[in-house]
Amino acid sequence: NKEGVRWLTLTDPAGRGVKVTVLSPDEGGKTVPVCSATALHFTESDLDAAHTTWQLSPLASVILTLDAFHMGLGNSSCGPGVLQRYAGEKRPYTLSLLFQPFHKKALKP
């Protein structure tokens, strides 16, 4: 998982793919300017079902997960809960994203 993502690209071996950009907040500041991103060759259910990593079979496709907010570690089940500064507000979050075609050859040095 990568935190504080403003943009990312996913490409095939030839450099063709997609660029995802997190758009800036609107004037009211109601959207999130960064996100958390995970790109894996496994589904969430595959990961939940596997007891060990050798039981996982990678998919040919990539599963991209983008989140507006992740709470810090801890849940009070066997100790203290999450520190307040990592708990986040209980409110709706909006994540505005722009998906664009991408090719590494289009980049200029």
List key phrases describing it.
single chain, 109 residues, mainly beta, Beta-galactosidase, Chain A, domain 5, 3-stranded antiparallel β-sheet, 2 helices, flat
Summarize the model shown.
By secondary structure, the chain is mostly beta strands. It has a single domain, classed as Distorted Sandwich (Beta-galactosidase, Chain A, domain 5).
Mean pLDDT level: 84
The rounded Rg comes to: 17 Å
What is the rounded distance between the termini?
29 Å
Helix content: under 10%
Question: Could you give the topology of this structure?
Answer:
Elements: E1 2-5, E2 7-11, E3 16-22, E4 35-40, H1 44-49, E5 63-67, H2 84-87, E6 97-103
Antiparallel strand pairs: 1-4, 2-3, 3-6, 4-5
